[in-house]
Design brief:
alpha+beta; 2 domains; 299 residues; globular; three-stranded antiparallel beta sheet; eight-stranded antiparallel beta sheet; 11 strands; Arc Repressor Mutant, subunit A
Length: 299
């Protein structure tokens, strides 16, 4: 039985490219049928998940925390990402969010990987295993192409997708940012994978609160050693490092509000010791919170 960690995407007759659209959140979504009509679809992008398809995601509205493999950062529309097969990822939006995802089978026998004309994209497929973010003129071009998707039938959408791949391949050096430092795996299907997904989602939902490692181990139903191994395999980080990274992203966003004190921001994000907070922030960001705030104001 497939674990909840692995997103179930709809099998559409006559289509190898799935187009998913959302206007407000990553739960109540739509999937386009062959003619371009919207079909209701229940999405899982706001929970930690992966799937066997290659994915191009374009965020057109919203912001929040983005986790891709071992990368924890922020997304802010407009944002364009290429995610490899079985690469764990999640978006936690802070308010309404809109966007489009294109998912395609990359299998070298039956999927897109079997098309000989696309053999030159092998380097792109490899980079996708780490997750890639596109910025600048490349991102603008990808977003412009995406605007045509819902007005086209299935064959036209495939043409747009090919044009997106060509734009990525032709992007100038420096236009793309690799996200995850390592290519991560996930626990095999089963109860342990489902439990670990619940653990990661619980941490993301409650990272501002006090979280005890023992409680999370109990939630996973595994031993401490197995919990540690699975958590690192899924996220690329220990529980403590993962929790700190989420809190630091929260702090970075809050520092844009000049009316809030740094002490208030630190405690609100879940840090209960100021000296520890300053040490963690400096290590993660490379400067003090005060210096980081000054760069935001100067920028």
């Amino acid at each position: 039985m497939q674990s909840p960690l692995h997103e179930h995407v709809p099998a559409l007759s006559g289509q190898s490219l799935r187009v998913l659209i959302w206007d407000h959140d990553l739960v109540d979504m739509w999937c386009l049928d062959a003619a371009g009509s919207r079909l209701p679809y229940r999405g899982r992008g706001s929970t930690w998940h992966c799937h066997p398809e290659l994915e191009v995601t374009l965020i057109t509205r919203g912001e929040g925390i983005l986790c891709v493999g071992d990368h924890i950062g922020r997304f802010t529309a407009p944002d364009c990402l290429l995610l490899g097969t079985r690469l764990p990822h999640v978006w936690r939006a802070e308010g309404p969010m809109a966007g489009i995802s294109l998912q395609v089978d990359l299998d070298v026998v039956s999927g897109l990987g079997a098309v000989p004309e696309l053999a030159d994209l092998a380097r792109l497929w490899s980079a996708a295993g780490h997750g890639v973010r596109w910025q600048g003129t490349t991102a603008t071009a990808l977003l412009s192409l995406s605007e045509r998707l819902e007005r086209l039938p299935a064959v036209g959408r495939m043409g747009v997708f090919m044009a997106m791949l060509a734009a990525m391949q032709a992007a100038p050096r420096g236009a793309a940012q690799a996200l995850s430092q390592t290519v991560l795996g996930t626990p095999g299907p089963g109860s342990s994978a489902a439990a670990m997904e619940r653990v990661v989602d619980h941490v993301m939902a409650h990272y501002r609160e006090e979280l005890r490692l023992g409680d999370l181990v109990a939630m996973s139903g595994t031993s401490p050693a197995t919990f540690h191994r699975h958590f690192v395999r899924m996220t690329g980080k220990t529980f403590v490092a993962y929790l700190q990274a989420l809190r630091i992203q929260d702090v970075r966003r809050a520092l844009t509000d000049p009316s809030r004190s740094i002490t208030d921001i630190a405690f609100a994000a879940g840090f209960n010791n100021l000296s520890h907070f300053h040490a963690v922030f400096r290590k993660a960001v490379g400067c003090t919170p005060r210096a980081f705030r000054r760069t935001l104001i100067a920028g």
